[in-house]
Every structure is written in structure tokens, then in C-alpha cells.
């Protein structure tokens, strides 16, 4: 649940404001259905059929050999460090809100990079799994405080301070192609925790419980996304902020961001730890140093964490707009990891079954081809929309990179 409910939930009200009630909810349920299948496919059926798989790169190796290993592995690596970068932005926004912009935003991001290095150094997922319970509770509490608060207060923070105002709630929105694809990419990002499901399944005490855990996870995640999106969009309409925590008034914004900080810290830590572990496995696989308590083991481990944090820091400092950055991650990297990759791996196994004399399941083949087509379209169109959005940000704010400006009031 923590790999799914993190930064993405903060963009759901924005997605509804772009598409309107009906298309927004339909698209949310459609993405939830596709990613639920991918989650079950990845951590469940594929893991049982190929127990030697630990990460996405292992899947690529089985399907396409060395080139598949390298391609899938680096896509996974870049996705995770990009999510950490977006967590830096979310956390810097939270720290600016809570402290009333006590210092330069670039300084906050630098401090968070140091924190990520320290917190991610734990060698196993066990301490992080415990922290994830706390992080999940904190992020849910924060977003529900905002959802209730904006429905109780007279008007959202971005609405005109005085005089009449109109939420402009829409049953069906009328976005431009670029606006629609950016919002859809944000939605895909919200559900793109799929690549983390395989390493989590690999470290479970009882992997047979994975299917039940994954279905429970997706049921709760989808319900929370719907509830939060509907409540906040109903209260704010076109004045909804992204991240959604900025939709509340000054006091509620401080409270909600303060409550969200532990949850965002856990997201930051998880998404630094997982790619660092992938990188270490890649460097030390086949050597005794992979599991031995040696100097080479610990130097390699800390070095991998440092590389991940450095890339995340550079990414967060260079691209400072929340919606644009998670849209880019969702479209360019997230879709392959939770849509096309799963469809290709399932088609590969089906091809092996046919070679062994089994009949083709045409319904499953059609579904995989559909997921492959949808994912590819979102990758191309969503990346275009996100890049255009980032260019627009730099056109209006040329000094956005490594900026000291307060980002807690941005929408």
C-alpha cells in the first residue's frame, strides 16, 4: 500500500478537475483494473513460474537475454530514483509550508538528500516495512484532514479571498490534448507501484499470501483515491491545488503537510533503498561479497545509495513543478513498468506454453495486446505533454532550477 499511496494520491483531485466527474472516475477505475492485473501477474504468477526473479531486470533477462536485463533494469532504476526526486519536491513543499519558508527551497532539498542517504542505509526491507505502516497512516491522515477541511471551510486557498466565486464543477471536462495527457500520466503514476511488488514478494516470509495482499492493497488504494479525489474536487473545483494538500487554508495546510512529512520520508527512503539494492546486486552478483559482512560489501552498498541520492537530487533541483515531474515519470517510465512490461512477459510465457503443446488463450492474448497498445500510447503522448508542461514552466519562470522561491503555494 505504501508503494502505491504516496505522492500519487496528492494529484488525484487535479486529475478530476481536468477530466470532470464521469471521465475522471472511469479512467481511474480503468487504470486501477490494468495495474491490479499487472500486480498479480508480476508478484504472483510470474514469481511462481520464475522463482529466481527478484527485480524487473531479472524479468527482462528471461524474456530477452542480456539486452532485456539491461533495458528493464535501467528503466526500473531511473523510475525509482525519479520518484525519490519527486519526493524531495513534495517534502520541500511540506517543509516550506510548515516553516513559513524558513530557508531556501534548494537548501531544503539538499538537506533531504542527506536524510535519504542516512535513512536508506538499512541493508534489508524489514525496518522499512515497519516504517511503511507509520508512513501510510501519516499520508492518509494528512490527505483526509484536507478532504474534510476543504469541505468545512468557506472556500479553498486558491479561490478569490472575497466576493462571489464559482467552483466550476464539470461532469465532463474539455481539456486540450496536452492537458488531458498530462493528467492521465499523473493518474498512471498514482498506480505505478507495480515494479516494487516483485522484490517485496521475493522477501515475503510466505509468498503464497501475495495474491491476497495485492488484492487487499489495490482495493484499499482504489477506494482511497476515489474518496479523496471526489471529496477534494467537490469542495475546490477548478481551485484544487497539486499537490492537493495545498488546497486548504494556511492553518490546515501547515497541519496537513506536517502530518504528511513522515509518509513522504518513507516514500523517499523506499525509493532510494530499492534501486540501490538493484545496483548492488548487479555489481556483486556471483561474488561472496553480496551477502558477506566485508569491507567491499559495505563500501559498494553505501556507494550505490550515494549514486541514487545524487541522481534524485539533481532531478528534483532541475525540475521543480510537481504535476509536470510526476506526469513525466508516469508516462516515460511508469507505463512500461506497470503495463507494457507485464503484457510482454505474459505473452512470452504463453509462447513457451504453446511450444510445449498447450493451446493459445486468445482472450488473454487479446488482453495483453490491448494493454500493450494503451501503455505505448500513454508513453508517447504523456511524455510529450509532460515535456511541453516543463518547457512552459521554464518559459514563465526561467530561474525555476535550484530556486530559493517558496514552492508551497504553487498549484
Automatic annotation (TrEMBL):
<dbReference type="GO" id="GO:0015179">
    <property type="term" value="F:L-amino acid transmembrane transporter activity"/>
</dbReference>
<feature type="transmembrane region" description="Helical">
    <location>
        <begin position="130"/>
        <end position="150"/>
    </location>
</feature>
<comment type="similarity">
    <text>Belongs to the amino acid/polyamine transporter 2 family.</text>
</comment>
<feature type="transmembrane region" description="Helical">
    <location>
        <begin position="71"/>
        <end position="91"/>
    </location>
</feature>
<dbReference type="Pfam" id="PF01490">
    <property type="entry name" value="Aa_trans"/>
</dbReference>
<feature type="transmembrane region" description="Helical">
    <location>
        <begin position="255"/>
        <end position="276"/>
    </location>
</feature>
<feature type="transmembrane region" description="Helical">
    <location>
        <begin position="97"/>
        <end position="118"/>
    </location>
</feature>
<feature type="transmembrane region" description="Helical">
    <location>
        <begin position="322"/>
        <end position="342"/>
    </location>
</feature>
<feature type="domain" description="Amino acid transporter transmembrane">
    <location>
        <begin position="2"/>
        <end position="384"/>
    </location>
</feature>
<keyword id="KW-1133">Transmembrane helix</keyword>
<feature type="transmembrane region" description="Helical">
    <location>
        <begin position="12"/>
        <end position="38"/>
    </location>
</feature>
<feature type="transmembrane region" description="Helical">
    <location>
        <begin position="362"/>
        <end position="385"/>
    </location>
</feature>
<dbReference type="GO" id="GO:0016020">
    <property type="term" value="C:membrane"/>
</dbReference>
<feature type="transmembrane region" description="Helical">
    <location>
        <begin position="297"/>
        <end position="316"/>
    </location>
</feature>
<keyword id="KW-0472">Membrane</keyword>
<keyword id="KW-0812">Transmembrane</keyword>
<feature type="transmembrane region" description="Helical">
    <location>
        <begin position="213"/>
        <end position="235"/>
    </location>
</feature>
<dbReference type="InterPro" id="IPR013057">
    <property type="entry name" value="AA_transpt_TM"/>
</dbReference>
<protein>
    <submittedName>
        <fullName>Putative amino acid transporter</fullName>
    </submittedName>
</protein>
Amino acid at each position: 500500500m505504501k508503494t502505491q499511496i504516496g505522492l500519487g494520491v496528492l494529484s488525484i483531485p487535479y486529475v478530476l478537475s481536468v477530466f470532470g466527474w464521469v471521465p475522471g472516475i472511469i479512467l481511474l477505475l480503468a487504470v486501477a483494473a490494468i495495474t491490479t492485473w499487472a500486480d498479480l501477474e508480476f508478484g504472483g504468477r510470474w514469481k511462481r513460474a520464475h522463482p529466481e526473479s527478484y527485480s524487473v531486470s531479472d524479468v527482462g533477462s528471461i524474456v530477452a537475454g542480456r539486452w532485456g536485463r539491461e533495458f528493464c533494469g535501467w528503466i526500473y532504476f531511473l523510475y525509482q530514483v525519479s520518484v525519490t526526486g519527486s519526493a524531495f519536491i513534495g517534502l520541500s513543499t511540506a517543509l516550506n509550508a510548515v516553516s513559513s519558508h524558513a530557508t531556501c527551497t534548494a537548501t531544503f532539498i539538499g538537506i533531504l538528500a542527506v536524510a535519504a542517504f542516512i535513512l536508506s542505509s538499512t541493508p534489508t526491507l524489514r525496518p522499512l516495512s515497519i516504517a511503511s505502516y507509520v508512513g501510510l497512516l501519516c499520508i492518509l491522515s494528512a490527505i483526509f484532514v484536507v478532504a474534510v477541511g476543504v469541505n468545512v471551510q468557506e472556500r479553498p486557498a486558491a479561490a478569490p479571498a472575497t466576493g462571489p466565486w464559482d467552483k466550476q464543477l464539470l461532469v465532463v471536462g474539455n481539456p486540450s490534448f496536452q492537458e488531458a495527457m498530462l493528467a492521465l500520466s499523473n493518474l498512471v503514476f498514482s498506480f505505478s507501484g507495480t515494479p516494487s511488488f516483485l522484490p517485496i514478494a521475493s522477501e515475503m516470509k510466505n509468498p503464497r499470501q501475495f495474491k491476497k495482499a495485492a488484492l487487499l492493497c489495490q482495493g484499499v488504494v482504489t477506494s482511497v483515491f476515489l474518496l479523496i479525489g471526489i471529496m477534494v474536487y467537490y469542495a475546490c473545483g477548478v481551485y484544487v491545488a497539486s499537490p492537493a494538500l495545498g488546497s486548504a487554508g494556511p492553518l490546515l495546510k501547515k497541519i496537513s503537510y506536517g502530518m504528511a512529512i513522515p509518509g513522504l520520508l518513507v516514500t523517499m527512503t523506499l525509493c532510494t533503498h530499492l534501486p540501490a539494492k538493484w545496483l548492488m546486486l548487479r555489481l556483486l552478483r556471483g561474488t561472496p561479497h553480496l551477502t558477506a559482512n566485508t569491507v567491499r560489501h559495505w563500501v559498494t552498498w553505501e556507494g550505490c545509495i550515494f549514486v541514487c541520492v545524487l541522481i534524485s537530487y539533481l532531478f528534483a533541483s532541475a525540475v521543480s513543478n510537481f504535476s509536470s515531474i510526476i506526469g513525466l515519470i508516469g508516462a516515460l517510465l511508469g507505463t512500461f513498468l506497470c503495463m507494457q512490461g507485464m503484457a510482454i512477459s505474459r505473452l512470452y510465457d504463453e509462447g513457451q506454453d504453446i511450444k510445449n503443446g498447450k493451446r493459445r488463450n486468445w482472450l488473454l492474448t487479446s488482453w495483453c495486446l490491448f494493454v500493450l497498445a494503451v501503455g505505448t500510447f500513454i508513453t508517447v503522448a504523456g511524455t510529450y505533454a509532460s515535456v511541453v508542461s516543463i518547457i512552459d514552466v521554464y518559459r514563465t519562470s526561467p530561474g525555476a532550477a535550484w530556486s530559493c522561491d517558496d514552492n508551497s503555494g504553487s498549484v
